[in-house]
Amino acid sequence: MPGHVTIDAVAGGTGPRDQLSVPTGSMQSAVLVGKVGERLADRWQAESSLLGSMCAHALVPSGKLFRPILLLESAMAVGGDADVVLPAAIGAECGHVASLVHDDIIDNDDLRRGKPSVQYKFGADNAIVAGDALIFDLFAALAECRTTGAQPDRIVAALDVVARCGIDLCRGQSLEAEIRERMDFDLDAYLTMVKLKTAALFKGACECGALLAGGEDHMVRALGEYAENLGCAFQIHDDVMSYTVDTDVMGKSDTSDIRNGRLTLPVILAYWESDPDGRQAITEVLVDDGDPIVRRDTLMEILERTGAITAAAQRAVQYSRDAIDALRALPPSPSVDRLRGFAQAAIDRDR
Amino acid sequence: MPGHVTIDAVAGGTGPRDQLSVPTGSMQSAVLVGKVGERLADRWQAESSLLGSMCAHALVPSGKLFRPILLLESAMAVGGDADVVLPAAIGAECGHVASLVHDDIIDNDDLRRGKPSVQYKFGADNAIVAGDALIFDLFAALAECRTTGAQPDRIVAALDVVARCGIDLCRGQSLEAEIRERMDFDLDAYLTMVKLKTAALFKGACECGALLAGGEDHMVRALGEYAENLGCAFQIHDDVMSYTVDTDVMGKSDTSDIRNGRLTLPVILAYWESDPDGRQAITEVLVDDGDPIVRRDTLMEILERTGAITAAAQRAVQYSRDAIDALRALPPSPSVDRLRGFAQAAIDRDR
Q1: Helices (H), strands (E): how many in chain A?
Q2: What percent of chain B is helix, strand and coil (3-state, nearest 5)?
Q3: Beta strands of B25-173 (E only): which ranges?
Q4: Where along the sequence do coiled-coil regions lie (chains A, B) (predicted)?
Q5: Nearest by CB: A133 against B139, B151, B170
Q6: How confident is the model over B10-47, as pLDDT tens digits?
Q7: Contact at 8 Å (CB) between A188 and B192?
Q8: Which of A129, A137, A162 shows the shortest C-beta gap to B174?
Q9: Which class is A4-346 in CATH?
Q10: Domain ranges of chain A
Q11: Long-range residue pairs from A285-292, CB within 8 A, at least 24 positions apart, any chain
């Protein structure tokens, strides 16, 4: 779709609520995104093994390629050439898809992007190996940047950033499990988890693109700050939307968070706004295994009474503003305009 | 233990049969191995999170550090400085341990290195994330070589090699599942699987060390060839030992391969040496779910009758010789002597 890209928001997102369409503002961007999609489709297609089948199944048809887009736009925002960083953009999607493949095992999700998940189609054991292969492929793709003109010292700097962001992603996933396990309503722990789980890969993509393209230190830092705030805005808006999206549009009440016992920002804010009885009601709704629709209705009543949904939405807005502010350190360019657009779109989805 | 290192053979090996002790021939090697162990112990110890606990549990106490040793000796064999490649050696162990953590989920193994496996202690879902973090940490460690004096273009070349070897490892794991699933006695498929699953990380370690240390192309290739043959010798000798090691020494009959339906080289060779009745007997033993001791005894009788154990052992000897031959391309040095010793020790274990 030249002139527009539709982007999905966060790891794990598949529903319509995770998508948004923002103008790319240029044919060049659309062409680049098309290239990334084609290369991803080719990457494992020729390998007729079980591993090849699994990786191709996971990568194709591709999602909205938001992390590759962030990487490419960041490279251009620092004055670099998108073709130089193209392999790394492909790698960013491999890394993201790897996390989805493993997430689907952990969450026992059978569907991904409208078709059977890797774990459902090939079994959890095989899916573990497929996810691992895609993590390695992220780094294989990064190494390919030496054939497109990136400087070796920049590739090594990007390697450092990407590896550390990958570890942060794991820290976030593990912290999420801890929070769920001990039913922890601590706000700081939640915000740290979002920063690690969702924002880390955004940050890795932006910093990687900027580094490979030869960006100056202050530009790399600015794009990292932008991405971290963007990631938090996205995730929190996603949290909010799980309570505000019209169930008629979604086709059904969204009860997945309830069923998974996942703590969202609105729930955490409502908890701290509630009296002891309210807190107990929230806890019961989450640990209960009764009808999720009934539990959701109870929770909605508390969320509305405490104003927690609005309070959470305001935090998403603030993160979006902070993301946009961070871009001020960069010289004006169409890419910076588009990055700014993403930060706005992050909190405008489905409203 | 200065002057000696005890090395474990293959991914998945925990029993006494997987260990061998070869003279290091120098204090320097022993000191280096000690350094790797210390750094590994420090690496995740300070992180009090669930992820930190899991990674520290998996890495400490360390195994025999054979992949780090291969990497360090390869660097010295091409005339390089071991301290320059030390972070990569640490990374090699992180990558190896990552594969063990995920293998233990796949094989549902509760014990690893004499203590509870990560999946047993922390659950499979958390163990997936821990393994992922250790893969990322392999690459974070590789990037650290820029602080020890490695050239950026060499780090990028090593990145390429390590990422591709990691993908090969996954290909091997996935192929092993395919072979088991369709009960495939194809010899070529088995040998390909061994080359990918066991030899790939050996190859990655040796080539990575040689590349980072500034080795010439022909030296890097020679060490890669050495490592690939070494890995095959190790794995096949391991296969053979599962039928030849004294059960009194092991404390029990080794029936894990039988229970897991795993095809080993002796079984495959016996299959092709057998008449239709013998082939059916082999197949039945593997798919049967009766007493593993009885099944093992039946299988042993067939293996002995067909001479398959001896034939498999001869192949291991040939791989060991090929590994030693590959070292001829390198200038004589104490490191080359030690690498040669590893190839000999690979087929001399527990005889």
Answers
A1: 17, 4
A2: 75, 5, 20
A3: 111-112, 115-116
A4: none
A5: B170
A6: 433 333 334 444 445 566 778 889 999 999 999 999 99
A7: no
A8: A129
A9: mainly alpha
A10: 4-346
A11: A285/A258, A286/A183, A286/A258, A286/A261, A287/A183, A287/A261, A292/A253, A292/A255, A292/A258, A292/A259
Choose, out of A132, A145, A178, A184, the residue to mutate when testing the contact with B (most B CBs < 10 Å).
A132
Q: How many residues does chain B have?
A: 351
- Whether A163 sits inside 8 A of B143 (CB atoms) is yes
Q: Which residues of A touch B91 (CB under 8 A)?
A: none
Q: For A85, what's the count of Cα atoms within 13 Å in the CB-facing half-sphere? A: 34
Contacts of A177 in chain B (CB under 8 A): 50, 125-126, 129
Q: How far is B181 from chain A (nearest CA, A)?
A: 11
Q: Are the C-beta atoms of residues A37 and A72 closer than 8 Å to each other?
A: no
DSSP-assigned letters across all residues of A131-162: HHHHHHHHHHHHHGGGGTT--HHHHHHHHHHH
CATH of domain B4-227+330-348: 1.10.600.10
Instruction: Return the percent helix, strand and coil in chain A, to nearest 5.
Output: 75, 5, 20
Angle at B30 between CA B27 and CA B36, to 5 degrees: 140
A93-119 in b/e form (b: 16+ CB < 10 A) is bbbbbbbbbbbbbbeebeebbeeebbb
Tens digit of pLDDT for each residue in B284-301?
888 877 888 888 888 999
Q: Give the pair of three-digit tokens for residue A74.
A: 């960041």
Write the CA distances from A285 to A94, A295, A308, B62, integer angstroms. Answer: 37, 5, 16, 44
Residue ranges in chain B whose pLDDT is less than 70: 1-27, 246-256, 259, 350-351
Of B54, B136, B146, the CB nearest to A166: B136
User: Among A152, A159, A175, whose Cβ lies nearest the Cβ of B143?
Assistant: A159
Q: What is the ipTM of this complex?
A: 0.91
Q: Which residue has the tokens 């203590």?
A: B115
A171 touching B (Cβ < 8 Å): yes
- Residue-wise pLDDT tens digits, B255-294: 667 767 778 999 999 999 999 999 999 998 888 778 888 8
CB of A260 less than 8 A from some CB of B: no
